[in-house]
Amino acid sequence: MISYCSIEYLLVFLPVVFLGYQILPRSVRRYFLLAASYGFFWYLSGPLLLWHVAVCLCVWLIGLRLRNLLEERDAAVKAAERSERKAIKAQCAGRMRRWVILAGVICFGILLSLKYTPFFVDNLNGLFRHLGIHVQMKVPSFAVPIGISFYTLQAMSYIFDVQQEKLEADRNFFRLTMWLSFFPLLMEGPIARYGTLAQKIWNVDRIQGENFQKGLWRILYGVMKKMIVADRVNSAVELLYTDFAKYDGGMVFLAAVLFTCQEYMEFSGTIDIVIGTGECFGFVLPENFNQPFFSKTISEFWSRWHISLGAWLRNYLFYPLSMSQPLKNLTKKCRARFGNHYGPLVTSSIALFAVWLFNGLWHGAGWSYIFFGMYHFALIVTGSFLAPPVIAFCEKHNIDRKNFLYRLFQMLRTALLVTIGEMFFRALSLKYGLLMFARMIRQASLQSFADGTWLKLGMDLQDYVIVALTVLFVFVISLLKERGCNVRGSLYAKPVIVRALITGLMVTLILLFGAYGAGYVPVDPIYANF
Amino acid sequence: MERLYEILEEMQPEYDYHKETALIDDHLLNSLTVLALISELEDEFDITIPAVEIVPENFNSAQAMWDLITREMRRR
């Protein structure tokens, strides 16, 4: 599959789009960008593009209907007596809700039909077999448009925001479509809200030198992460996850660590390329990562990893559910009974269960993904449950929770829990994930490191050294960012010759140490299939 | 507003609510505390806070919370 790191994208598509964008007159520039986005989509998904157009049309028309209803409501409220206003608002809210449900049925309906039907049919067949019912349905197989899970959430965020009057529905179909199809966002997000992005893209201001330079550095940094680390460890990850039964627990743990490293470098690297591309144009795309491996708890991890998905789930699922009247009533009762911490924990656990079921299923139609969601749900609820006794324990034993060693312990613990979760995420199936976990525990051994097995996984010592040094480099950059240092801003302040040298050095490092050519199979964009 | 400060200090006493302006952005209040706080504010001020108002800017400081409360009281 083509990725944002491919030669076609970086050396052909992107330069042509930058050049065309810069030389075309402003009046045509935005349509050129839209055509480039749809051209990119067509290149990746062919006629499946029509599903995307259907979603754009759906949210555009329903958005306009919601806008009309709100205008009618405002006019009616203005003309009505004070006593009648509440009823008019309630009536409008009810009518809007029906349109929002229709949008949800269409957008999520397309997503569910294309992506999840085979999973549901397969499981239904299994259930029938289990119950002794002699009915077996043919498991269908559908081609799925690229990034369908991303643009569906993005489209629904627009409908919810219009319903909640956070923004006014757009009358301009092309502006809305541009935001939903902007080519850097298509494959792996981030899920950008209409209000933060649509108008910026539509303004199509000329490319500025500073933006372009900083954007280019961000793109190269992303390419480094992807090509030097994610692609280099790919053969070992493939081998270990397929043939884990041949190796001891130490190697299974190595598989989990390498995949976690690969996934972070691939996903965050791609997001660097995406955000860097936006920056070249002068658009500020939302960040999707905020140094996640500095997190002290799993909750914090999810506020730093795939931020845009977490924000979507929090805004459109967790809070609406938690604030629904039945759960609000339950919160009140539980607070009275269990106090301010454990009371809301009961109700938020119900909302969190829905959030993590959705999160797991969003990642893929498979039990391993559902398990991945439930694993994190269990960790977050357990973490919240144990928080008060842990604080009490620390206070009793004079343990300073702000102490560096304590925070380091928390970070390592969180990283370990995340790594174990990623093992289930990457495993070929839930059964294989459980078998891998069991093997890691029961056959825990360092023998494979002592006898050199770890160097026979398609990675030699040089590969491990290159990966380790690049990870160290990314760690140092992350540490600087964590401390509030604006790395690219500081570099841009240097003389032009130094800036050119930095760019040249980054390109040289990619050319020298990137994993490409014979012997390497680049990893497919991990999140593009979601 | 004094009552709001009391509620906040009862709920999570370790912060200076007269000074803090990034309670949500700096992860000082988590979603559990926010849910408990909303429940308490609704009871205390006889208001209903809709889900759409649960955004960081409404809970980042005591002043922002007070603005939200007065807005919802007017809407009653």
Question: What's the topology here?
Answer:
The complex is a heterodimer of chains A (530) and B (76).
Chain A: H1 7-23, H2 26-45, H3 49-79, H4 82-131, H5 148-163, H6 173-181, H7 194-203, H8 209-230, H9 234-242, H10 249-281, H11 298-304, H12 307-322, H13 325-363, H14 367-396, H15 404-426, H16 430-442, H17 447-450, H18 461-482, H19 487-492, H20 496-513
Helix pairs in contact in A: 1-2, 2-6, 3-4, 3-5, 3-6, 4-5, 6-7, 8-10, 8-18, 8-20, 9-10, 10-15, 10-16, 12-13, 13-14, 14-15, 15-16
Chain B: H1 2-11, H2 31-45, H3 56-59, H4 62-75
Helix pairs in contact in B: 1-2
Features:
heterodimer, A: 530 residues, mainly alpha, 3 domains, 20 helices, globular, B: 76 residues, Non-ribosomal Peptide Synthetase Peptidyl Carrier Protein, Chain A, 4 helices, 57% helix, 0% strand
Structure description:
The complex is a heterodimer of chains A (530) and B (76). Chain A has 530 residues and is an all-alpha fold. Chain A folds into 3 domains: 7-205, no CATH class; 207-289 and 446-530, no CATH class; 294-426, no CATH class. Chain A has helices at residues 7-23, 26-45, 49-79, 82-131, 148-163, 173-181, 194-203, 209-230, 234-242, 249-281, 298-304, 307-322, 325-363, 367-396, 404-426, 430-442, 447-450, 461-482, 487-492, 496-513. In chain A, helix 3 (49-79) crosses helix 6 and helix 13 (325-363) packs across helix 14. The relative contact order of chain A is 0.10. The model of chain A has no long low-confidence stretch (mean pLDDT 91). Chain B is mostly helical. Chain B has one domain: ACP-like (Non-ribosomal Peptide Synthetase Peptidyl Carrier Protein, Chain A, Orthogonal Bundle). Helix content of chain B is 57%, strand content 0%. Chain B is built from 4 helices and no strands. The model of chain B has no long low-confidence stretch (mean pLDDT 87).
